[in-house]
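User: Here's a chain of 138 residues. Predict its fold as tokens.
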Amino acid sequence: MIGFPMRLAVTFLILALFVPVTIGMMDGMERDSAVSVAKTEAERIADTIKRTYYSGAGSTDTVGISLSGGSCLVIGGEGSDSYCISILLDDTVAERIYLQRPTVRFLGDPVHVMGIGTVSVECVNENGVYGVKVSVID
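Assistant: Prediction complete.
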């Protein structure tokens, strides 16, 4: 009779220890999945940018994007961010993709891409500065 309550107490102790760990692992997997999807979309945008950049000034192209899970892409910015696409998850930078081969500069204000839409890319030469302008069409 004494053994059963002890077994029950040990079982509840084990559950109390492992349930929070399991929930934390599931949250981490959801976060990693959202970042992975956003990174795939960012790489698609980067490929479109490179293709447009190589085509020369005046070239334009578009790419359809589908993001979910609270993720956002920020294209361009100030300083070194003017050469990268930042992946944000819940307003925190999860990863950055720098366009290095070729080194492409984003001209204009940073562009925030969320949800489902189309990104337009135009290669321009503004006052001797060669780069790309990015905008969200819809």
